[in-house]
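Q: What structure does this chain adopt?
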Amino acid sequence: MALQTVDEHEGLAGERLMMISSDTHASPPFEGFADYVEQKDMAAFQAELDTRNAFRHAALGKAQGKSEEMNTLQAEQGFGPGTRDPDVKARHEEADGVVGCVIFPNGPRPFAPEFRERAPLGLPAPSLKQRVAGARIYNRWLADFCSAYPDRFFGIAQIEIEDVDAAVEEVKWAAENGLRGGIAFPGVAPSGEYPGLHDEIYEPLWSVCEEYNMPLNTHGVDSIPAQLYPFGHVANILLTLTEAFFFSTRHLWWLMWTGVFDRHPKLKLTFAELLADWIPRTLSDLDSTLNSNLGAEGRAVLELTPTEYWQKHCFVGASFMSRTEANARHDVGLDSVMWGSDYPHVEGTWPHTRESLRNTLAGLPVEDIRKMLGENALRCYSFDPDRMRALADQFGPTIDEISTPLEEIPDSPQARLGMAFREGDHWT
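A:
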């Protein structure tokens, strides 16, 4: 049976769509972490806070050549009240038509390992124990934030993968305390300092994530071993953007080729804010590698092909999805695509989410729209479908609205500076 568009079935027009964003952000101002810091870490936290108070993101942005309009919008919107006040976030999401949110961090956490973020401030490299403590601090704050709307806000817990025992305990704590979005999947530097993801040392982590239905989430540049990049060099951000795809997507073939997916058949892996155009090409290359003469040993032990592993285990959080990406949904894997707003970031869709979706999705089959906007996220995460449907009936846009082609892009700084209305499938 052919899929229906609104034009082919007028009875669908008034149905409200269930929208779950696979990519949103929340963090307090740095001083907002203070109540979650253990006494043994307070002196180091206060020293870091004092240092950070001497620097501001806007000044760093200007140093990197960003426009005044971009600096202002990043400061006012990217770090606005919706990133720290759950009620404000809920109202903004409702206005967008979004009823469920997967939540990533929005700024540095205490004792964060990101060298490119710490180096310009003169902050020393934190110890592994401090990094574990910093992840715990953020997770406690996020659990309180999400508790205001526990059925709608699915926070992603932070871990330090170099301390597997601590990571396992943090996954358990997160799952039992309302952080139901899974874990942020950090990168392992290819330096030999720590074992590759094939190593049995990580088996307890894969097992606990599988047991508690906690997806492994990659996001943008977050999986990059940041110490690789020269802060202050003009190429810093270009290197970061270029290699984000490699360091995040390499998780895919490591878990695939080394049998992790075979040993953990319920494990899920997501890729947020990494666009989607790389997926068909990557899967084709991986399939070709396995099917080559040199892939014989792999074929003898692996249970599935790369494309089959993707279909079974993987999802893409298609942040600020373009029309080109939407048109390629079947090449990517329709059942794997999860739309994301990237709230409240300047490059995201808010506050023009409804207009951007009209620009991206108008004219597509209704069933495809339903899957990408919400149904696939229901399968990936553990949102309650009945609750999501009830909220969608209250706040969601109608199919008729989203299926109406956009005649004019909004004239606003967000629309000009963001990526929601880009015409291509990459950054422009």
